[in-house]
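Possible race condition, two jobs.
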Amino acid sequence: EVQLVESGGGLVQAGGSLRLSCAASGFTFDDYDIGWFRQAPGKEREGVSCISRVDGSTYYADSVKGRFTISSDNAKNTVYLQMNSLKSEDTAVYYCAVDRYYCTGPQYWGRGTQVTVSS
């Protein structure tokens, strides 16, 4: 059974940092691209970042470039999202997801972790 479990969310002041983790199990980690998505209240879910299984290349949404960093630890089957210089508009539920299409068509999703940035 594929499982993706996010952790690391919480309440932080604007300008602060958080590191999200996504622990994966039930599939061959190296076979999938893995990414982070978020959904703010009243808004559609959007892609935040993705890391490729093929060459480790990364994608970032324009709104987080220069502030967020995605990384993976294949030995631990875990992907991280380091979030710095957080803004109130980063407030959302953050989900990790996997697919084989550079995060354009996620097949499996975690349940999400809440990030709240107070201004």
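Job #2 (started ~2 s after job #1):
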Amino acid sequence: QVQLVESGGGLVQPGGSLSLSCAASGGIFSLYDMSWYRQDPGEQRELVATITSGGSTNYRGSEKGRFTISRDNAKNTVYLQMNNLKPDDTAVYYCHAYRIAGDAEVTYWGKGTLVTVSS
């Protein structure tokens, strides 16, 4: 069982930056593809960025160039650096772990951290 704990959310002004962290425990972190999702109230959770176990990264179109996902396998932590934040970036941000084990898909979610972009 993998536990994911996000941190780093808060209130930031438009144009500002935040760095989110997700600390993992209870599993072999390096085996997992790690992602950040976000969810607005009343909306579906949407993928923001992914970093694979091999270190490849993918971003949703609107965040590419503003957000950077990275991981430190020695610290069992994945990060999301968010720059030039906009009010539309306001959401709860969730950490997600995924891997395939045999015939099964194994996924875990964190509880989320709130990011509010407002002046």
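The longest strand covers residues 91-101.
Logs attached separately.
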